[in-house]
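We emphasize that the prediction below concerns an isolated chain of 451 residues; any contacts that depend on oligomerization or on bound cofactors are therefore not represented. The input was used exactly as deposited, without trimming of termini.
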Amino acid sequence: MTALLLSPLYIIFHIHALCLIYKWMGCCKKHFNNIFVKIIVGVIYGILVLSLPIGTVLHAGGLQRLLMTIGNFTLGASLYEAFVVIVADIFILISKKRRSKKEAKAALKAEKKALKEAKKASKNEKEKSESVITEVESAENKEADSEEIISEATEEADKKTDNKGLAITGGLAAAIIVLLCVIGVINARIIRTSEYQITIDKKVEWMKELNVVMVGDFHLGYNVGSRQMKKMVKKINAQNPDIVLIVGDVFDNDYDALDDPDELKTILKDIDSRYGVYAVYGNHDVQEKRLAGFPFGKNKDKAPDERMEKFLEDAGIEMLRDEYVLVDNKFYIYGRPDADRPGKGVEKRKTAEEIVKGLNMSKPVIVMDHQPKELAKLSQAGVDLDLSGHTHNGQIWPCNLLTRLMWDNSYGYKQIGDMHSIVTSGVGVFGPNMRIGTRAEICHIEIKMGN
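Result of the prediction step, given as a token string:
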């Protein structure tokens, strides 16, 4: 429903943006005002803008994949285009205000000229000083004519200056948008390793340290595929992990969007760890159409596609659905269902108190929860480490400034009472196929046991 409501606004905005582009073109070169040039530009712009909504409603296939790929790049560019449009509108308003002041001055001069002409009409009443008045008025009329000519020339010069300023400013803005998008696309494909060292104040027999790798938010689909997963698996195996934990959003709402499911399974199966790979579902591990990030269509169960479940099983990933495993009789891993989309068989997920009920709290308790919610409650319940994703750290500046206001811990490390909280920005991307001001990452966590 939200997607349908926002679609008209999206189209109206881009129509307004296209009008500004035409205006900018007219300021650059006169031949850009040619109707055929404008039609070509309008068609190309329309394809870029409409590729995402059209691709969303098409059936899976080569054309749909192409349109979705183009649309996700355009969506990222549109965010920064919006900033440029706002600035341009402000610039236009200021220019109009300045022009209004000039017009007011011109009207005042015209009024003065009219008064002088009235003065001229009464010269017959002043016969004695007729010659003197005539000379004065002649001089004044010449002065008024000169002022009018100067005023017109000044207005023309100002108009040329405004056009030149708009051409330079528009060109600079377009160059900045393109540069940011290129940097963002490249940056999204570079996976870094974030290092964390924490201590859990519990003694574990025959285990002084635990080497954990946390990953999440793959968003496998139109933006992320086999190439990115190969990079990720290579990074994970380089850490020689004891255990690998995936904190949700393996998929991007559409199983049919996977570039090669069989190859992806093989790649993920190559993850090498002592105790295996465990995962939880996220809010995007559900088969549903989305338009610019908003649900489009219905999935009453809010549950994963059966093919998604089979995919993870074949890839050697063990899903935890509101349940725990006691690993090697040394530590607990608890996997919580997503807060918004808990999945099949889970009407309401367990509370923080219910999670730890029946656990031996002398052993370390590690919780995977896709969204970093209820951190204080988990800490009070005695959880030692909470691992989350979901936020992407905003993914694109300045969204990372907003996520800091929305979450108690939007990214990185934070201690909540006696509990450690670590939130990853994820491996993949959602929506705009770029990262600006954030990074794709895996999290290498070294946990020391004891004091």
